[in-house]
Design goal:
By secondary structure, the chain is α/β, with parallel strands linked by helices. It is built from eight helices and twelve strands. The protein has two domains: 118 residues, Response regulator (Rossmann fold, 3-Layer(aba) Sandwich), CATH 3.40.50; 98 residues, Arc Repressor Mutant, subunit A (Orthogonal Bundle). The structure holds calcium ion (CA).
């Protein structure tokens, strides 16, 4: 029997999830605080943890990061609010295996749990999305508002990197280190990065009214919607 832990401070949601999952034949435990959840995950073995992001005290993201830092590879599905795109990206960045946006249909949740249990833990995120931009990391196709973007391998990698760090400052030295594996500045990487970035921005932003890649003078870049 698969063991599932629900970490959710809203008692009504926790109880209804417990009932639905119990009826499906899962053994279900619940925790109503992040601390309690963290304790249970570290003392018992679960197949899947359903982790709410918005928790009093330590947030779901902090718990997730702490787990992964300890190399705990339990499957984690996070629950996020509808507009909290950043939480979703951060959650996937922090090692979540999947996410559900509240409110959700329980049938959808059950389907996702079945997929997770079949698939097992994977380092791979298969899709990145932001503001109409969508990157399929398996087929390596990119599109914005349904229009395909013709990207080179490096441009695709750069865009994926930007989306993974959306809402955060991205310096040229981060890009040099993570995408060019450049640790010692033997060659001036900044120009190389700027050339790639300029080409990428022409493809991603030029023909669209809303720009999503922005230069932060003296720092580097940020991916965000223009109004924020
Ligand atoms: Ca909550």
């Amino acid at each position: 029997m698969h063991q599932i832990l629900i970490v959710e401070d809203e008692i009504k949601i926790a109880h209804s999830l417990q009932q639905v999952l119990g009826a499906e034949g899962y053994a279900v435990s619940t925790a109503v605080t992040g601390e309690e959840g963290f304790f249970l995950i570290n003392t018992e073995i679960f197949d899947v943890v359903i982790l709410d992001i918005m928790l009093p005290g330590h947030s779901g993201l902090e718990i997730l990061e702490a787990l992964r830092r300890r190399d705990n590879q339990t499957l984690v599905l996070i629950l996020t609010a509808r507009d909290a795109l950043e939480d979703r990206i951060l959650g996937l960045d922090s090692g979540a295996d999947d996410y559900m946006i509240k409110p959700f249909a329980t049938s959808e949740l059950l389907a996702r749990i079945r997929v997770l249990l079949r698939r097992g833990r994977s380092e791979q995120i298969f899709q990145l999305q932001f503001a109409g931009l969508s990157l399929d990391l398996v087929t390596r196709e990119a599109q914005r508002d349904g229009r395909p973007l013709e990207l080179t391998t490096k441009e695709f990698d750069l865009l994926a990197y930007l989306l993974r760090h959306q809402g955060r400052f991205i310096t040229r030295s981060m890009i040099a280190r993570d995408l060019w594996q450049e640790t010692i500045r033997a060659t001036p990487m900044d120009n190389v990065i700027d050339v790639h970035m300029a080409r990428l921005r022409r493809k991603v932003d030029k023909d669209f009214p809303e720009k999503i890649i922005h230069t932060i003078r003296g720092i580097g870049f940020i991916v965000k919607k223009e109004e924020s």
